[in-house]
């Protein structure tokens, strides 16, 4: 056999394929650019919720034990969908790396640990996607202290709070806000219940968001309603990075229109490693010593909170990012 010719259109999954077997939806986005019809590619829109219950200092003792409390600071980061899309077009599923003019780069566990503070050692984050006998309702009642209706539709949505093994984010948030008011006099039992809901929303809706932006997979309920310290002994950073890799593989295809996963990590990574795309001022709210002391106790990526993403400025468009990525550095 003669030498195999590399054609980026054929390396869609983990090896060469016959181009005739590829559908338009399976093809890598680079195929459309290679074939000179990039205008057919629309930006991939990130879906993720930051509609969590209000934070209260009394939640800190519980959430801190999980190692996930610092994530609430990243809820304010706005995703630049054009930047996300441009990076996905450079992502190769067979190597899990970005192919750039100067070589290959990728997000590592070290990046995740430094930028977000997520633990990267410990037990694997695993669980069953199969509903327990009787569904999730009894588990929610036993561990969270309230019943979730399975037939009453969410107002204006037409779906019940529990549906096909999923839990409604809007229902959880609205219920806890209506039923539990956190103040200095709130009983500790209610504070802990509120902290559970907050954690479920943080993990299921922010770290591992559903593309519909309103469902949390039931798998998180048993994982996040057990012992607080046991939650913190898991390698959340590894699971989140795997989710980002998987979502980039999906977003690199022509048919991709939405993205889940914790894509804020990709954006932080790009701003750190590709500074030409970073906001001009990474520290917009550093004004006094108290804020400087506050930042010293948080992950490195917190410095970007509140930074202007320039998402709505014409020069920061998908075409702009493609052009910049094509240039020698």
Please explain how this structure is put together.
It is a single chain. The chain is mostly helical. The chain has 13 helices and 8 strands. The protein has a 3-stranded antiparallel beta sheet, with no helix packed on it. The radius of gyration is 21 Å and the shape is globular. The N terminus is likely disordered. This is Aminotransferase-like plant mobile domain-containing protein. InterPro entries: AminoTfrase-like_pln_mobile (IPR019557), MAIN-like (IPR044824).
Percent strand = 5-15%
Mean pLDDT: 77
The total beta strand count reads: 8
From the helix content, strand content and strand pairing, which structural class follows? mainly alpha
- The number of helical segments is 13
N/C terminus separation? 38 Å
| Spatial arrangement of strands, main beta sheet | 2-3-4
Order of helices and strands: HEHHEEEHHEEHHEHHHEHHH
Principal-axis shape equals globular
Name the helicity range. Answer: 25-40%
Largest sheet composition: 3 strands, antiparallel
**Radius of gyration, in angstroms, nearest whole number:** 21 Å
User: Unreliable segments (pLDDT under 50, ≥5 consecutive)?
Assistant: 1-22
Features:
329 residues, mainly alpha, three-stranded antiparallel β-sheet, 13 helices, 6% strand, disordered N terminus, MAIN-like
């Amino acid at each position: 056999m003669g030498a195999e010719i590399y054609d980026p259109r054929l390396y869609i999954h983990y090896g060469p394929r016959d181009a005739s077997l590829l559908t338009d939806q399976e093809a890598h986005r680079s195929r459309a650019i290679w074939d000179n019809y990039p205008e057919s590619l629309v930006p991939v829109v990130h879906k993720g919720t930051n509609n969590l219950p209000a934070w209260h200092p009394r939640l800190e003792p519980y959430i801190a034990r999980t190692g996930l409390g610092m994530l609430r600071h990243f809820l304010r980061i706005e995703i630049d969908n054009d930047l996300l899309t441009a990076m996905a077009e450079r992502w190769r599923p067979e190597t899990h790396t970005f192919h750039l003019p100067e070589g290959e780069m990728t997000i590592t566990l070290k990046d995740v640990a430094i930028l977000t503070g997520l633990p990267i050692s410990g037990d694997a984050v695993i669980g069953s996607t199969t509903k327990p006998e009787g569904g999730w309702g009894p588990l929610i009642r036993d561990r969270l202290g309230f019943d979730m209706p399975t037939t009453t539709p969410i107002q204006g949505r037409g779906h019940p709070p529990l549906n096909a093994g999923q839990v409604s984010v809007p229902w959880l948030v609205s219920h806890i806000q209506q039923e539990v008011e956190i103040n200095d006099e709130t009983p500790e039992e209610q504070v802990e219940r509120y902290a559970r809901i907050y954690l479920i929303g943080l993990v299921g809706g922010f770290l591992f968001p559903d593309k519909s932006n309103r469902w949390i997979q039931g798998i998180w309920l048993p994982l996040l309603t057990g012992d607080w310290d046991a939650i913190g002994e898991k390698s959340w950073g590894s699971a989140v990075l795997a989710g980002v890799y998987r979502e980039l593989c999906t977003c690199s295809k022509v048919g991709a229109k939405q993205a889940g996963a914790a894509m804020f990590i990709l954006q932080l990574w790009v701003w750190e490693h590709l500074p030409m795309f970073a906001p001009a001022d990474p520290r917009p709210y550093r004004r006094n010593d108290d804020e400087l002391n506050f930042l010293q106790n948080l992950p490195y990526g917190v410095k970007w909170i509140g930074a202007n993403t320039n998402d709505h400025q014409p020069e920061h468009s998908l075409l702009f990012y493609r052009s910049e990525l094509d240039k020698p550095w």
